[in-house]
What we know:
Number of domains: 2
Shape: globular
Order of helices and strands: HHHHHHHHHHHHH
CATH class of the largest domain: Mainly Alpha
CATH topology of the largest domain: Endonuclease III, domain 1
Structural class: mainly alpha
CATH architecture of the largest domain: Orthogonal Bundle
CATH superfamily of the largest domain: Hypothetical protein, domain 2
Number of helices: 13
Helix content: 55-70%
Amino acid sequence: MDKIENLYLALFKKYGKPQGQWSLWCKRPKTLKEKELIIIESILTQRANWKNVQMAIENLRKENLLSLESMLKSPTEKITPLIRSSGFYTQKAQRLKTVAEFFINKCKGLKMAEKISLDILRKDLLALNGIGDETADDILLYALEKPVFVIDEYTRRFVLKNKLLDTKAYKPLQKLFEDSLKKDYALYQDYHALIVIDGKNQ
DNA sequence: CACCAGGAATGTA
DNA sequence: TACATTCATGGT
């Protein structure tokens, strides 16, 4: 009888498992390399459409820059022109370096980062320049497979459309989903992806 | 030619 | 807390 749960079932019935761009982000399990790619994509996709992000990803791939390790070693001036198509390229080049530095140096690698508690990790990510609520949760949910529900513009429209809650604030919306659903990262991944897929379909 | 796309930081009231 | 502005490209 829970509305949030029923809306998920309706979306899944309509679209099935998230496809296309989401097939990697919702893949389970993921290799370490795939997780690093998702972290890089989560930065590049900030206020950018997926097609433009993929052009940047291809450029990075040609230069073997799709790992956090190589990203950290590469000078910012080398990254900037490669990610031009994703927009805000000066900022994003710096943000990629910041995130790579965090996971490689501070966490001693992605594998070690996964062992850190969700609360600490989220706080540390938010302290980084260029990482806000949404990007932090993208990384936590899709790359580190932590049970946090991602709130974005599509989710806000979804909540508004279904009259679930009358606010745009991040935390209350996140709590709305997390309180109504089983604490399951796989469910959170698919649900959020389906909300975006459905939103783009409108 | 105007508007928008998986945002975030900064400043103002 | 709630807006407004800035950063910027490629697609429609």
